[in-house]
Amino acid sequence: MVKFITEVVLAATCLVFAGYAYAGDQYAKSQDTGARGVEDEVPAAAKISLANGEKNWIIVDGVTRDDKTLTFAEVHIDGNGWLVLHPFEGGKPNGDKYVAASYVQSGSNKNVDINVHKGVETGEMFIVMLHRDVNQNKVLDFVFTSDTGVMDEAVFEGSTMVAHVVSAP
Q1: Which CA distances in Å does 143 have to 56, 67, 134?
Q2: Helical H segments across the chain, by residue range
Q3: Residues 108-146: tens digit of each pLDDT
Q4: Which long-range contacts (CB under 8 A, 24 or more apart) does 59-62 make?
Q5: What is the pLDDT of residue 45?
């Protein structure tokens, strides 16, 4: 039952994080081609999932914690970017803010530490995800460019956002 509730929360989170942006992109494409209207595209946003991709992934099994630092065994990103932790607030993920970020270089990154400055409680929930360093300045540009999108955008493979719900050990 807890897993089901978590999956429902994840589905809603996907819509908040990226669904509207995805639907908006699809709507813009439909206007260029004369295809269907936005009403027909909104359900496509509901198909967004959180998972690993073929070129980008986060190994979340075996996450460890040392005081305020979480360590992920492997993070693989196609292009330079960021491993980012978004908090849960009131039982729901909040993608409008982040509590920690760690720069990762293109390719495989082993034992990636991410320091949560506010501290971490055992069992505390987060969304861990990849963001692309779009302008390659090694600074997380978490500046909103739309209602749901930021400059250093979330990493997607098709309709899969490379992200997971994790519980701090």
Answers
A1: 23, 29, 12
A2: 2-14, 20-33, 38-45
A3: 999 999 999 999 999 999 999 999 999 999 999 999 998
A4: 60/128, 60/164, 60/166
A5: 52
User: Chain-wide mean pLDDT for the chain?
Assistant: 81
Residue-wise pLDDT tens digits, 13-51: 443 444 433 433 433 333 344 443 333 444 455 588 999
Give the other-Cβ count within 10 Å of 50's Cβ: 21
Walk me through the domains of the chain, giving residue ranges and CATH numbers: 47-167 (2.60.40)
Bridge partners (DSSP) listed for residue 130: 83
Alpha-carbon span 54 to 155, nearest angstrom: 12
| Amino acid residing at 156 | F
Q: Buried (b) or exposed (e) across 11-40, using 16+ Cβ within 10 A?
A: eebbbebbbbbbbbebbeeeeeeeeeeeee
Alpha-carbon span 100 to 120, nearest angstrom: 11
